[in-house]
Write a structure and sequence with these properties.
The complex is a heterodimer of chains A (384) and B (186).
Chain A: E1 39-43, H1 46-56, H2 69-77, E2 86-90, E3 94-97, H3 98-108, H4 115-126, H5 132-137, E4 143-149, H6 152-155, H7 172-185, H8 203-206, E5 208-211, H9 222-225, E6 232-245, H10 252-263, E7 280-284, H11 286-295, H12 299-309, E8 311-313, H13 319-327, E9 336-338, E10 346-350, E11 358-364, E12 371-374
Parallel strand pairs in A: 4-5, 7-10
Antiparallel strand pairs in A: 2-3, 4-6, 6-11, 6-12, 7-11, 8-9
Helix pairs in contact in A: 2-3, 3-7, 10-11, 10-12
Chain B: E1 3-7, E2 25-26, E3 31-36, H1 41-56, E4 60-65, H2 71-86, E5 90-96, H3 99-114, E6 119-124, H4 128-137, E7 144-148, H5 157-175, E8 177-178, H6 181-185
Parallel strand pairs in B: 2-8, 3-4, 3-5, 5-6, 6-7
The chains are: A alpha+beta (384), B alpha/beta (186).
C-alpha cells in the first residue's frame, strides 16, 4: 500500500516579511504618474457607477465605491508601497500589482490599513501549492477562506468571536470582499467566464476572513504552528462551511468523535476518486477548546483523534466509488478510508462565540494546499 | 451627474499567440503522446482507441497521466511532463470535461504548444467555449481544440467507443494530420 502523502514543495516556503520604506506620492499625486491603470470616464453617483461597473464585468452585484484617482492615491498614501510593485503572478501570467490590489480594495470599501493583509493574502493564494489555477476554473464552489493571527486582528477589527465566519458587522467584510474582487478582476475567477462553478457559493461574495481567538486557545496559534509567528494569514481553499452541533458531549474524546465523524461523508472532497489527497480545516469554539485542551494539551493529539474519526469503512461506499478509492490505495489495512492522508493534515484553530455548541468544518478543494504567509508591518514615514 | 475619472480594476496579459501552431502532418514514423488524467475513463477508452489507429498508420504512441499539482507531487508531475514532451513529436491533450480539468488540460496543451509541438487539446462540448477562453488567457488563443460530445463520461464503454470512432477523422483534421502520403500531398 502506498498512500499519497501531503508534502509541500520545499522550494515554496513562505518568504520573510520585508521591511517597508515609505515611498508614497500622497493624495495630491506625484510628479511622476505612478498609476498605470487604464482610465475611464464614469458617472460617480453610486447607482450610475454600479450600472457602469456591472456592464464592464467588474462587480459582484453589490454597490461599489468608484475607484477615483483621489481615492486610490489616498489609500496608497496611507501605506508604504510603490503602486507598480508586482506582488504575484496569477493564472494566465497576469501580474498583480499593488495598484490593482488598491483599486479593488477601494471598490470594496476596505480600509487603507488592510493593504498589507491583502498583499499577504494575495501572496498566499498565488503560491503554486494553493493551486489557484484549479481553484479558479473548477465546477466546485471553492473560495479561499483566510484565518488571521497576531495583533493585526485587533488593529483591523477582524472578528474571531461570535459570527466570525459571516454576519458580524466589521470592516473585515469589506476586506474579504476586496479579496473576492481581486480574485475576480485580477486572478480571473468569473463565474460563467473563467470559472465553471456549478452552484457557486455565498462565500464567493465576501469570502471568509476570520481571526483565531488565540487568547482562548489552549494551543499555539495556527500561524505559529505553521511556521509564522505574530501577524500571519493562512489561506485555505474551501468548498464552504459544515456545521456540527453537539449539545450532549462533555469530554474531549466525545466532542472530537462527534466533530470528526461529522466531517466524513462519502461525497466530500477528501473521498473523491478524483483527488489523491486533501486537507481539512476545523474551527473549534472556545468552550469546547477549553474542555479539550485540559485533556489534550498537545494539538497533535487533537488532530490524531479527529483524523481517526474522520474516516469511513470502505464498505460504506457505493461499489464504483470504492473501486476508485482502491485504485488509489486509499483503503487501509483496517478497511477504512481516511479523509486526509495523515493527522497533521487536519488543521485546527479556535474561534467563535462563547455560546459554544458548534464546530465548523471546511472541506478543501482538490489537492489545493493551505498556505500561511507573514503580514508585513509598515515602517512609519520619516516626518523629516 | 458628476463625471469623474476612475481606474480600471482588471488586469490581463497583453500578449497573444493566435496561431494554432504547426500541423501534425504525416503521422507515419512520428511519436504521438497522449496526455491523460485520473478523472475520465471515457478519455482513457477513446485515447486507447485512437492510439490503435495511429499505430496502424505507422506512428509510435505513448501515454502520460497527470496527477496532483500541489506539493512535491506537483513538482514531480511538472518534471515528468516536461520529459514526456521531450520524448514525443505530436501532443494530444485531454480531457477538458470539467472546470479545473479544462484549466489543466489547456494549460498543459499550451505548455506543449509553446514547446513547439503540434498540439491539440480535446474538450467535451460543454467546455468548448471555456477551453478557448482559458487558452486566450494563457496567451494561445489559437490553440487547436477538438470537441467531443457532452455528456460523455457518464456513458457506458459500449456507447463511448462509437463516439471515438466517429471522431477519429475529424480529430485528424483538427490536428492537421494525415495517415497516408497521398492525403498528406493533397
Amino acid at each position: 500500500m502506498s498512500i499519497d502523502l501531503i508534502r509541500p514543495a520545499s522550494n515554496r516556503a513562505a518568504p520573510a516579511p520585508r521591511p517597508l520604506i515609505s515611498r508614497d506620492c500622497g493624495p495630491e499625486g506625484c510628479e511622476v504618474d505612478w498609476l498605470a491603470s487604464r482610465r475611464h470616464d464614469a458617472e460617480l453617483d453610486i447607482e450610475s457607477f454600479n450600472d457602469f461597473a456591472l456592464e464592464k464585468g467588474w462587480g459582484d452585484g453589490l454597490p461599489l465605491v468608484p475607484p477615483t484617482e483621489l481615492r486610490v492615491r489616498t489609500f496608497l498614501a496611507a501605506n508604504d508601497r510603490y503602486p507598480d510593485e508586482v506582488i504575484a503572478t496569477l493564472p494566465g501570467a497576469v501580474e498583480c500589482t499593488v495598484e490593482k490590489i488598491v483599486i479593488n480594495a477601494v471598490m470594496a470599501g476596505a480600509p487603507a490599513a488592510s493593504l498589507e493583509l491583502l498583499i499577504a493574502a494575495v501572496t498566499s493564494v498565488a503560491d503554486p501549492d494553493f493551486e489557484l489555477y484549479g481553484v479558479n476554473t473548477t465546477t466546485a464552489p471553492v473560495y479561499p477562506a483566510f484565518v488571521v493571527n497576531g495583533p493585526v486582528r485587533d488593529r483591523l477589527d477582524i472578528p474571531y468571536g461570535y459570527g466570525c465566519f459571516g454576519g458580524v458587522a466589521t470592516k473585515a467584510v469589506a476586506i474579504g470582499r476586496a479579496m473576492r474582487l481581486i480574485m475576480r478582476n485580477v486572478a480571473g475567477q468569473v463565474a460563467g467566464g473563467t470559472s465553471q462553478t456549478t452552484f457557486g457559493n455565498p462565500g464567493r461574495i465576501a469570502g471568509v476572513l476570520t481571526g483565531e481567538w488565540e487568547e482562548r486557545s489552549p494551543w499555539a496559534p495556527l500561524g505559529e504552528r505553521r511556521g509564522v509567528s505574530g501577524d500571519a494569514v493562512t489561506s485555505f481553499g474551501t468548498m464552504g462551511t459544515v456545521n456540527v452541533i453537539d449539545s450532549t458531549s462533555h469530554s474531549a474524546g466525545d466532542f472530537l468523535e462527534m466533530t470528526g465523524k461529522s466531517m466524513a461523508y462519502p461525497g466530500c472532497n477528501g473521498f473523491s476518486g478524483l483527488v489523491p489527497f486533501g486537507e481539512m480545516m476545523i474551527a473549534i469554539n472556545p468552550i469546547w477548546a477549553d474542555i479539550i485542551g485540559k485533556e489534550m494539551p498537545n494539538i497533535e493529539d487533537v488532530q490524531e483523534c479527529l483524523w481517526r474519526f474522520a474516516s469511513l469503512d470502505a464498505g460504506h461506499f457505493q461499489k464504483l466509488h470504492r473501486e476508485e478509492l482502491e485504485k488509489q490505495d486509499r483503503v487501509r489495512a483496517d478497511g477504512r478510508v481516511y479523509l486526509t492522508p495523515e493527522p497533521k493534515d487536519m488543521l485546527v484553530f479556535v474561534a467563535g462565540g462563547l455560546g459554544g455548541l458548534h464546530a465548523t468544518g471546511f472541506h478543501t478543494f482538490g489537492t489545493s494546499l493551505s498556505q500561511t504567509k507573514p503580514i508585513a508591518s509598515a515602517v512609519p514615514a520619516d516626518p523629516a | 451627474m458628476a463625471i469623474g475619472t476612475i481606474l480600471d480594476p482588471t488586469a490581463a496579459r497583453d500578449d497573444d499567440n493566435a496561431s494554432p501552431g504547426p500541423d501534425a502532418g504525416l503521422l507515419a514514423g512520428k511519436r504521438i503522446g497522449f496526455r491523460l488524467d485520473r478523472m475520465w475513463r471515457a478519455w482513457d477508452w477513446i485515447s486507447e482507441q485512437w492510439a490503435e489507429s495511429f499505430r496502424a498508420a505507422g506512428a509510435e504512441v505513448s501515454f502520460w497521466r497527470s496527477a496532483g499539482r500541489s506539493g512535491e507531487e506537483g513538482v514531480r508531475c511538472a518534471r515528468e511532463y516536461q520529459a514526456f514532451l521531450e520524448s514525443i513529436d505530436v501532443a494530444v491533450v485531454g480531457l477538458a470535461n470539467c472546470g479545473s480539468c479544462t484549466g489543466w488540460t489547456v494549460r498543459d496543451a499550451i505548455t506543449a504548444a509553446n514547446f513547439g509541438l503540434p498540439t491539440t487539446a480535446v474538450a467535451t462540448q460543454n467546455f468548448e467555449l471555456f477551453a478557448h477562453e482559458i487558452a486566450g488567457r494563457g496567451g494561445r488563443s489559437g490553440l487547436r481544440v477538438h470537441v467531443l460530445p457532452y455528456p460523455l463520461n457518464e456513458q457506458r464503454r459500449e456507447d463511448v467507443l462509437p463516439v471515438g470512432d466517429a471522431h477519429f477523422l475529424p480529430m485528424l483534421k483538427t490536428m492537421g494530420a494525415s495517415l497516408t502520403l497521398r492525403e498528406h500531398a493533397a
